[in-house]
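User: Teach me something about this protein's shape.
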Amino acid sequence: MASLINVSLTTAEAATTHSEPSGNDSAACATTASPDFGIDLAGGDWRFRTGDDLAWAAADYSDAAWDSWTVPDNWGQSTELSTYDGYAWYRKTFTLPERPEGIADSSIIAALGLIDDADETFLNGQPIGETGSFPPAFDSTWEVPREYYPPDGLLHWGATNVLAVRMYDGTGGGGFYKGPIGLYSKAHLRNLSGPTGTAASAPQLAHACAVLRQQHQAVAAGSIGRYAATLDHDFFHQGDTAARRTADVRRMMAGKMNVVLHDDQAEVLVDAQGRLIVDTIRSWVSADGAVLSPPHREFLYIDPHRRVELGDHSRFFRDTYQSAAMHQRVEFNVYLPPGYTRTTARRFPTVYMLHGYNGSNIEWEARDMDTIMDDLITEKNIAQSIVIFPDGASGWWIDSSAGSYNSMVVKELVPLVDRAYRTIPDRDHRGISGVSMGGQGAFTIGLKNPNLFSSIASHMGALSLPPLAGTAEEQAANVPLEPLTLVNSMSSRQLRRHTYYFDGGSSDDFGFGQAAIQMGTELTSKGITYDYQGGSGRHEDAYWVPKLDRSFALHSKQFRAHPVCRTHEPRRPNPAYSWP
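Assistant: First, the predicted structure itself:
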């Protein structure tokens, strides 16, 4: 049965709301009246079956003949499903308590954790969200946390509810493999993972709303200057400086008669340093209804004494740009080392990290890559480096009819990152790493672009395979790009332009451990030194993640072999706040 986690609302919170004009209309600007409410749906009492029929979404469908099930589950560890790829459905019948005071349906988030690979979710027979794509346009999104927002009137308080999840696994594991799974208020999700604090007072709430109002009105009026005035001079938010954020807003507003900035379900809390944190669902739309930036949950940090937004000063975040190579806006993740946000002039080397098949830039968030990198710097003396995580889908990091992923990295991302971030923009301070498909991509991109990259690292890489993207004709034409073949075709002089690390387990599911041994033999025959790790292990994170210290040690050695003079760091006043 469903587990009621907590329902609590203080008198002060319940009394605190503030209304301000939002865009062109009037609405409740924000509130602190968010009960810590949660219904945990993980555990037993689920129903499960393989196959696919949209009739199974209906709230009144009888699933009595289905298998009893427990979530989270992991098909890869199941004797029944370890080799199954295809559709499956999960259903959960549960009872909600009577509606708690201060809770609207729209303030509840249906959190489904991580699902492998794609899903479509229904609550009481109505669709509430989907992530990824089903065949024939299959798109794996195993690494994307599911958070869906039920509309008002959909939840049955004090009565029975039915959650139905249609799921498709294209390769590998499958199923719900990580929580949280349940219905939660934003306050409860913050307590699970996010900024915490105390309820804002009425004056603090009014102060935060004044900043939001200034931003909304500036955007509605088309005034870039007025919007820029709401950003602190040290503003830094998800990679944006004040100048870059202002340029992004100018780009969104270009050619539009009117743009509206929305902040929905905003809640204000006060952190331990007194900063005001606005937990909001923020979106940007044009007057004709076109979505310029879709609704997404965001934490805005407001100075409690001045009407300016400070930014979150995050060092691990998603960035985007409009890609000419891909003909769309694309994402990439960025890790900044600790020294980056503590300085304003210092420049850093860069490592490009390429994911594997059916992956994306977001998978590094699921691995807590920022924590891993911080630990490597602190405990293993790895050089402080910017790490870039592009999104290569399943395109094998080449240009083909499946997408121009090579051009995206080489011709667009590298120069863009050098412009947007304080990199040391030369080959001696730029390395490339990859995992599985990405390990192959690191070799092909690195070897083909010696003017850009000086160190190459591959974790359980597909070194014995050509790129398997595009049409049959394209794949045949790309056979020379198999890393073993490519290395064999190059001279010792050409190969000495790079340094190399690679690994592969003796029980690798695709034989890439043997491919790593072959790569070592090939390089040795040409007199090229390299760092190699073998050992037992399958094609999984448990094998390669503990070896990141060796691959980043290779990059660090290369970077440190080419010292650069540090730019004089201008004297700055002591910051008013500390950041992670």
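Now, about its shape. Confidence is low (pLDDT under 50) at residues 4-17, 19-27. The two ends are 39 Å apart (CA to CA). If you'd like, I can walk through any region in more detail.
User: That's plenty for now, thanks!
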